[in-house]
TrEMBL record:
The lineage of its organism: Bacteria, Bacillati, Actinomycetota, Actinomycetes, Kitasatosporales. The record marks 17 as: Transition state stabilizer. One of its GO terms (molecular function) is 3-dehydroquinate dehydratase activity. This is 3-dehydroquinate dehydratase. Catalyzes a trans-dehydration via an enolate intermediate. Its EC number is 4.2.1.10. It comes from Streptomyces tsukubensis.
Amino acid sequence: APIMILNGPNLNLLGRRQPEIYGTDTLADIEALCERTARTHGATCDARQSNHEGRLIDWIHEARESHAGIVINPAAYSHTSVALLDALNVCDGMPVIEVHISNIHQREEFRHHSYVSHRADGVIAGCGVQGYAFAVERVVALVKAAGE
Ligand code: DQA
């Protein structure tokens, strides 16, 4: 089963959006990095992005049925969405890794808390887009460990 890569609001603008914070790589670059990383480990990815909270929730429900794990950058919804947390909490036993390109703990106070972190098996922040590669590798490792 593929690993679902979910990116939240405004991440479709990566590359042009505050490059001093988020760098110059685009969302397409990130999705290609995830696919390359997964393939190295014999896995595949299913990458999606939405600016809509409800659509992200529908995709989490889908992942629950048909995916090996979830890598999610909930973007601003990290800091606001109990609904995203609740959706992830229904994904019992499925690896969930949360990614933030920037180091949210170094930024404004309102970015320091993430609802999604209450469920995430791991959180990667401040590693730039490389964090997505780490997250994919971690999902692969957790899936492998669960099968042993
Ligand atoms: C982000 C950090 C969030 O605070 C912000 O709202 C984003 C991106 C990151 O990847 O660093 O949109 O999740």
